[in-house]
Amino acid sequence: MTPPTGHEKLPSMATFSVEEHTPSQPPSWKPLKQEYLVMLTISILSLMVALDATILVPVLPALATALHGTSSDAFWAGTSYLLTSAVFQPFIAALSDVFGRQQLLLLSLLFFSAGALICALANGFTVLLVGRSIQGIGGGGIITLGQVIFSDIVPLRQRPKYFSFVLGAWAIGTILGPVIGGAFVQKLNWRWVFYLNFPFCVAGMVMIVLFVKLNTTVKESYKRKVQRVDWLGSFLFIGGTTSFLIGVSWGGIQFKWTSASTLAPIIVGIFGVILSCVWETRVKEPVLRGSLFYNVSAFAAYYCAFAQGFLLFTALYYVPFYFMSVRDTAPIQSGINIFPVLFLLLPGSIVVSIITTRIGRFRWAFWSGWSITTAGCGLFLLLNLNTKTAVWAGVFVVFGVGSGMLLSSVNFGIQAISRSEDCGRAACMYSFVRSVGMSIGVAVGSTIFQNVMSSKLKSLGLPTSIAHVSEGFVAVMKTMAADDPVRVGALQAYVQGFHGVFIAMTCMSGSALLASCFIKTFSMDKVLESDFKLEARIISSGDLESGASSCRS
């Protein structure tokens, strides 16, 4: 990774603070009509991607049965999407710097649509996993380009306020996904979770073409654009990250952590990522910018982004599963039961966004959000066989408040910490690190759940194989008598497995709270630049010269 261009020596924190606290962005900035339309486009696409990422949660047991798959196959139906979504994000953002935002956003949506079609027509898990992987590439591109485009058109100080539209759409999609998935599997069939994407895809393509018209001042031939792309660095990074995440996903589920099948891809992946970082120091336009990680505050903030993804998706995967298995709740109801999270997640993120824009500070939301989230994760341990509704609803309220505060504060805190010229790439890196956290969270959660559940089953004299087909065994328990010893013991094992996951979540949240204490003060009033401008801004008098556009990607 390359050092900051044009700087032989990084400035001290004192120097940086003085520079960054110089107000340069007019607080009265207002979006033009075209900018509102771009925000609407990104919001709709974010809603679609968020729905798709979580809609499979209540469908996995039915999916495993319909396609004659194992618990491991069902696990990979979700993980394959998260994995490819994560690893391709930096590459897609870098390509958009060369070929254009609109072009890469359209290409990402085409990948997403093609993957959805393959999944909808799949008659086996192999085809389904191929489709989910292709969908993940497109979904990751849509998420990261939404971040980057916002950094092109909205000043940092105003960005939290207006990005709350996208956060709201993402939060609604994330929470409603399990509810809609449960409704489809109960009333229709699992293929409808993929059919649902097509209206969004068609509307998105039309809106991208009509509204996302960002022009660049850099004019060059297609051949020159291809030459500018860091193909080798991208290959090393994507290959290394993929290998690492596959190894982590296999560990403790398909193979033992100490087996060569698990360790080999992890070691190869780490070596590949290291090679890509070394290579990036030798190229002019690297995929990974070393200047993003120039101080302790940046490292701490990115760790918080990783923890955020880890916690949110682990909760969204295992809380509905808890209701369907332990509480014998129908798929639709299991999704409805996590509504307390939505009701506090969305308003919390919007309130924090508005306050952050007004006062230009974000650390208060870091500390408050992580404190409340850690408490909420710990309270998840109250979920057992007979937890009262008022208790579990209260637990979800606490977790929702904390998670809502973090949705916006971590994102824009990272951008405030970054240099002005790195702001767009910082937004991309936030999205990438959070997505890696999602992938690892689901994988680690599955490992912990199966191992803890297996241990409990063994202690009760029951077959540990139940833990390896835990999704499918939910249907089996429905046919057993309430006092059947196998059913009673299996329920105890399920609870023990979920508690293992919740303990891991509490530890992760606590570590993020500790990391947030190392983040120093940074102003959100920056000198902002961009090579990409909306046509309306170029035509509009004065705005371009006043610096109302945003940071360089």
From TrEMBL:
- According to the record, the residues making up region (Disordered) are 1-28
In the UniProt record, does the keyword Transmembrane occur? yes
**Position of the signal peptide:** none
Name any one Pfam family assigned in the record: MFS_1
One cellular component term (GO) for this entry is: plasma membrane
What organism does the UniProt record list as the source? Answer: Hyaloscypha variabilis (strain UAMH 11265 / GT02V1 / F)
Q: Where is the composition biased (Basic and acidic residues)?
A: 1-10
Instruction: State the membrane topology.
Output: Multi-pass membrane protein
Keyword Zinc annotated = no
Q: Outline the extent of the Major facilitator superfamily (MFS) profile domain.
A: 38-524
Keywords, A to Z? Membrane, Transmembrane, Transmembrane helix
Protein name per its UniProtKB record: MFS general substrate transporter
What terms describe the molecular function in GO for this protein? transmembrane transporter activity
Q: List where in the cell it is found.
A: Membrane
Q: What is the lineage of its organism?
A: Eukaryota, Fungi, Dikarya, Ascomycota, Pezizomycotina
Q: Where exactly are the transmembrane stretches of this chain?
A: 36-62, 74-92, 104-127, 133-150, 162-186, 192-212, 232-253, 259-280, 292-318, 338-357, 364-385, 391-414, 426-449, 497-519
The record, for PROSITE patterns, names:
MFS
